[in-house]
Write a structure and sequence with these properties.
- This is AhpC/TSA family protein.
- With 379 residues, this protein is α+β, with helices and mostly antiparallel strands.
- It folds into three domains: 102 residues, Immunoglobulin-like, CATH 2.60.40; 113 residues, no CATH class; 131 residues, Glutaredoxin (3-Layer(aba) Sandwich).
- It is 37% helix and 22% strand.
- The protein has a five-stranded mixed beta sheet with strand order 13-12-11-14-15, with helices on one face.
- The chain starts with 24 loop residues before the first strand and ends with a helix.
């Protein structure tokens, strides 16, 4: 997947029926972010099937949160700027940490997304892998700025150069993750690294091959079984597969059904108003739609906004000039269609042929129009 910024990923919760019931493990998160403007820190995680939101006041950059977890898990620590709700935030104001037994220390001086968590095994592994990927991520972030400037200036050549460079860096990033997975087959953190690898490697078969190379103790763990189910869902949206059907309401409440779009090439696009990489990609989708809408092509965009962000969703549609069908049940990542398409991070898209089969995935920047030119020329 070509991503101009680090993904703000939302991992799907593990099925409750698959989780054992060990004694809860206590954790404590101690944070020191002296440059933060946030007044409160919000920690979001799960206990069984329940979502937990805990908060703490930030005093001179310091805060502390305590709790219990039934199993180690990835969690989001949100530090909303003043006037911003913790439910509607940009990725740079969110730190990803791993909750498990022990004391976790989160430190940093800039954006929460760039803060480093240490103190427990999973967080140690995450910090080590993040250090390897940081130089590439920094270049991708810089390219995102270049891409936005080029789009604003209508500098097509510069935009094409940025897209090509971003595609190369994304492949390099995927290679770093694959190397980590190949050399850490028995480390439980590899299952989390595999989720990131999947975001940069759209080939479901390749992801399954890497998963099968992990140690049996990792693959058969409760988390490993959940990942295996996710990979099975990915197989259902592999190239050549018939895209799962769906029916969702547009902003006026009128249902839009994917099957009704048969006979045309259709881009099924997953996004959200709060997702900065999605918003950066919207102009590319708009350009492709304008260029090919009269050549047997259309788009349907599925927002993963929540009910509380309905106004932000509608405003983003207007601000980004999204004139094709826009649909959502405003259930975020819990919407059934996101689970059918195995969506764990956005932006993501799927190009369908007139028979409804997937012919390409995660087309970004120039790649979308290049693929459309290829398939429509063959019509």
């Amino acid at each position: 997947m070509v991503k101009l910024l680090s993904a703000y990923a939302a991992l799907l919760p593990l099925p409750a029926a698959m989780l054992p019931a060990p004694a809860p493990s206590p954790f404590v998160v101690r944070g020191y972010l002296p440059a933060t403007k946030a007044q409160k820190a919000y920690l979001m995680y799960r206990r069984g099937a329940a979502a937990v939101v805990d908060s703490a006041v930030i005093t001179k950059g310091h805060f502390q949160l305590k709790g219990l977890v039934d199993n180690p898990q990835q969690a989001s620590l949100r530090l909303p700027p003043p006037g911003t709700s913790y439910t509607h935030m940009l990725g740079e104001d969110v730190a990803i940490i791993y909750l498990e037994k022990g004391a976790i220390t989160l430190t940093g001086s800039g954006q929460p997304m760039q803060a480093v968590a240490t103190g427990t095994p999973l967080n140690h592994e995450n910090a080590a892998l993040a250090a390897q990927t940081a130089p590439i991520q920094a270049q991708l972030t810089a390219l995102a700025g270049v891409r936005r400037q080029a789009a604003a200036a209508a500098d097509t050549a510069r935009a094409h150069q940025a897209d090509a460079r971003a595609a190369l860096l994304t492949r390099q990033l995927g290679a770093v993750y694959e190397a980590y997975l190949r050399t850490h087959p028995a480390n439980p953190f590899s299952l989390y690294a595999l989720a990131d690898y999947e975001a940069y490697q759209p080939d479901a078969t390749a992801c399954l091959t890497v998963f099968q190379a992990l140690a049996p103790s990792v693959r058969t763990s409760p988390h490993g079984q959940a990942v295996q189910q996710q990979l099975a869902r990915l197989q259902r949206t592999a190239i050549g597969a018939l895209a799962p059907d769906f029916s969702l309401p547009d902003p006026s409440g009128q249902l839009v059904k994917l099957a009704d779009l048969r006979g045309r090439y259709v881009l099924v696009d997953f996004w959200a108003s709060w997702c900065r990489p999605c918003r950066a990609e919207n102009p590319n989708v708009a350009n492709a739609y304008a260029a090919y809408r009269n050549q047997n092509f259309t788009v349907v965009s599925i927002s993963l906004d929540s009910q509380s962000a309905r106004a932000a969703w509608l405003k983003a549609i207007q601000d980004d000039h999204l004139t094709w069908p826009q649909v959502s049940d405003l259930r975020g990542f819990n919407t059934a269609v996101a689970q059918r398409y195995a969506i764990s991070a956005i932006p993501q898209n799927f190009l369908l042929d007139p028979q409804g089969r997937i012919v390409a995935k995660n087309l970004r920047g120039d790649a979308l129009q290049q693929k459309l030119a290829q398939v429509l020329a063959a019509e």
